[in-house]
Design goal:
The chain contains 7 helices and 9 strands; from the N terminus they run H-E-E-H-H-H-E-H-H-H-E-E-E-E-E-E. It has a 7-stranded mixed β-sheet with strand order 4-3-9-8-7-6-5. It is of the alpha+beta class.
Length: 230
C-alpha cells in the first residue's frame, strides 16, 4: 500500500513571494532570478545543472535510452530531482527489509531489474503541451500524460501557507505551481484547489518555466517520491 513519506532536503520557498512578482519570462532557482530561456536542450540542462540535482536522473535516463523522450519538441517535462529518486530507493529498501533485514534496494538494483518500469513511468512526468504561466490557472487544467494511459492536472494556486512564502503583511498571496498525477480521468468541471488524496498525488513544483531549445521544464519539489508513490 502507498503511504505518505517526506524525505530529503526541502527547499524553503519564501522566495515564492518574490516569484509571483517577477516577470513572466523569468524564473527563480536557488533564490536568484534567472532568464527563462536557455540555449540548451532539456537533457543538457539537467545534465549540466551546477547543483547536481539531476545526476541520478540522468543516469536512469541514459540506462533507459530516454534522452530523445525528454527532448521531444513542444513538451513540458516535470523533472524529479535526485532527492525524489533517493526517497523511492529508501522506501523500497524498507519494503525489502520486511522480508530480508539485510536487503538494500539501490540505484544499481533499479537499473538491473526495474529499468523497464522507469521507462514506462517517466511518461507520467510529461505533458505534450508547452506550458507557461499565461496558460495556467488556479483551478487547473487536465492533460493526458506521456504514457497515454494516465492524466494529470497542472495548476497555479495562491497559498496562505507561511511555509510556502505567505506573509500576512502582504496583500497578495504568492502562487505555487502544482502537478497532480490523477488516479482517474476527470469528466466535467473540477477545482484542483479542492483535490484530496483520492483524486491523485499532488506535488509542488519548485521551479517552473525554464524554456530549453526543445521544450519547457519544471522541477518537482524534493519531497516528491519517484513514480508518485506516497
Amino acid at each position: 500500500m502507498k503511504r505518505n513519506t517526506v524525505y530529503g532536503l526541502l527547499f524553503f520557498v519564501a522566495t515564492m513571494t518574490i516569484f509571483s512578482a517577477c516577470k513572466k519570462n523569468d524564473y527563480l532557482i536557488g533564490g536568484s532570478l534567472n532568464k527563462a530561456k536557455v540555449n540548451m536542450t532539456t537533457y543538457d540542462y539537467l545534465k549540466n545543472d551546477p547543483q547536481h540535482l539531476f545526476d541520478t536522473l540522468i543516469m536512469l535516463v541514459d540506462a533507459a535510452g530516454l534522452k530523445d523522450s525528454i527532448n521531444q519538441p513542444g513538451i513540458t517535462f516535470f523533472a524529479p530531482t535526485d532527492y525524489s529518486i533517493d526517497n523511492y530507493l529508501y522506501e523500497k529498501t524498507v519494503q525489502e527489509q520486511n522480508v530480508n533485514i539485510f536487503a538494500k534496494y539501490t540505484i544499481d538494483t533499479l537499473i538491473k531489474y526495474d529499468i523497464d518500469s522507469f521507462k514506462y513511468y517517466i511518461g507520467e512526468y510529461i505533458v505534450h503541451t508547452p506550458l507557461n504561466f499565461n496558460n495556467l490557472k488556479a483551478t487547473g487544467t487536465q492533460f493526458e500524460t506521456g504514457n497515454d494511459t494516465t492524466y494529470s492536472v497542472v495548476s497555479y494556486e495562491p497559498t496562505h501557507d507561511p511555509y510556502l512564502g505567505f506573509y500576512s503583511a502582504v496583500n497578495t498571496p504568492p502562487n505555487i505551481v502544482y502537478y497532480t498525477l490523477l488516479s482517474h480521468r476527470i469528466i466535467g468541471a473540477f477545482d484542483a484547489q479542492q483535490f484530496t488524496k483520492s483524486d491523485g498525488v499532488k506535488t509542488r513544483v519548485q521551479t517552473f518555466g525554464i524554456l530549453t531549445t526543445t521544450g519547457t521544464l519544471g522541477v518537482l519539489g524534493n519531497e516528491h517520491m519517484l513514480y508518485f508513490e506516497y
